[in-house]
């Protein structure tokens, strides 16, 4: 007997079109969500940084633990943004919704993030070291120029690969957390969305760069506000880019774990 089974993950759709000027509106939406519960958001951000710092200090595996755990914490802040957007109360515990609901898939996103960063570094190092060796063989001034040029090209390659990795990571926690998209599908779809609306995300990246420097001025305390604003902006960007195209999923019951 042929029994049709419901697929575990919804099929990824093509991302929607976004005007470049909407990047500013996303940040405004992020600020609006932050102002709904600034104290709770600041506490979440503080715990966020403490957890990443503690993971980074773990012996032997600390360098890998923080990048792998990052999507879990981002997903929790996105869950908090969704809760506020629905008109409900935000709690500090929402930061751990990613662990409660999609831990396995979010850890896979973090693992792919780490592997991608290592691959980018290895490729750039291979290019740079090859140029240095070739320069040593050639010798003299031409060799030094070849080595310097190769090192600069390696840095350029790393920058491009890192930007691609950030594009793949940008929407992935939202797609996994809020629409149960499979981890690798979420990262590929996130990269497609950023490419599809490249100008909007260049504008957003430039704005975030400026805001990050401003947030660091008061002894870094501004990051306790900027991180929730970024989470709200990411949620707003996800809503505009994907929410109209994906099926609405029922809100999971407390303690439910779909994995």
From TrEMBL:
Regions that span the bilayer: 39-58, 64-84, 105-127, 147-172, 193-215, 221-238
InterPro entries in UniProt: BPSS1780-like
Superkingdom of the organism of origin: Bacteria
Keywords for this protein: Membrane, Transmembrane, Transmembrane helix
Annotated protein name in UniProt: Transmembrane protein
Natural source organism: Thauera linaloolentis (strain DSM 12138 / JCM 21573 / CCUG 41526 / CIP 105981 / IAM 15112 / NBRC 102519 / 47Lol)
